[in-house]
Amino acid sequence: MAKRVLIVTYYWPPAGGPGVQRWLKFVKYLPEHDIEPIVYCPSNANYPIIDKSLKAEIPENISILKQPIKEPYKLANLFSKQTKTISKGIIKEKDKQSLPERLMLFIRGNFFIPDARKQWVKPSTNFLTTYIQDFNIDTVITTGPPHSLHLIGLKIKQKLEVNWIADFRDPWTTIGYHKQLKLTNFAKKQHKQLESKVLNQADQIVVTSPSTKTEFEAITNKPITVITNGYDQEKVEVNNLDEKFTLSHIGSLLSKRNPEILWQALSEIINNNDDFKRCFQLNLVGEVGEDIINSLGKYNLIDYLNKTGYVSHNEAVKFQKKSQVLLLIEINSEDTKAIIPGKLFEYMVSNRPILAIGPKGADISKLITETNTGKFFNYSEYDALKSEILNMFEAYQNKTLNVNAIGLQKYSRKALTKQLVDLINNL
Questions:
Q1: Taking every annotated instance into account, which residue ranges of this chain make up the domain Glycosyltransferase subfamily 4-like N-terminal (predicted)?
Q2: Are 48 and 42 in contact (CB under 8 A)?
Q3: pTM across the whole model
Q4: Same domain, yes or no, for 18 and 75?
């Protein structure tokens, strides 16, 4: 008889973005290992990004439980158009925030702990406690953010003898945007206490990066396993690469993730290289922060910009496969060393070179080097970055711009699901 595993997630199709794809893919492959996944998600979630194409990837005959959730963002949207951008993670620099924006951030940070979905914890716990007993569930998996979902797992664990895996797609108290939420000392303490309770009462912790594992090891003695995000074999074909020398960033490019070192390098190259000026194009595919656009204007790059906004996952894969170079940008902060964006793994199998910029010692640097899929630069390596762009452009002109990736198989969704299966079976 198959083991039954209950997966508690906020993000599920028609939600778009990388957060939904991790568990959508696990659910796809778990039945191959005699594990029956049962998904629990909101029936009326206020998703900041919608991608209806992902509905087609939901496996047939999968049990999906849905219960309503109270969404404070829905109410706030009636009063301010800025709420939607904040819910997407697009937060302006402090000196550019309006009074309503500052107030909303303060309320979000101090009245909704750990996050704005906290009101779903109690009704979900009540519903699932009965369901688990009635349907003989072996294991409960909670995935966050939103980290309030881990509180559902915590309360269920306190009531029932059930195995609980807490999956952290991002860190909790050290995630970059926490510093922008105007947290009081009391709120910071509450976050720390809740984080500690989850980490010390779950049977197994799963994280997506080695740095997060190291961080959590200082808080708990419970077993912690790194299962990164990964790639699936997408049935998307592209016949030709872009004719122009395209540098493409796929996904949200938030205001805090503003690589002025790159814009400056591109501007200088354009001013000194007529061939580059004629061939260059910058593709930004996804949500783009206002500060990014302002910086592109400052460096006279607007004329080279192709800004498409959010596209479906299949369209995003097409952009990845036809672009000459793929951009990966991370905030220059100690807090972001642990962030490994889900798109990195799709980048790695797109057969296009990656140009990545991030903090010194970032986990993404090790991955890119290990797989031979591109080049990584920190924010102090201006000359080296500029030189690499010119090297890539020369290869583009000679039609030799390519990549020879190695060791990618272990990041396939099937291989990663096998790691998860081993954890489930060993509980």
A1: 108-234
A2: no
A3: 0.90
A4: yes
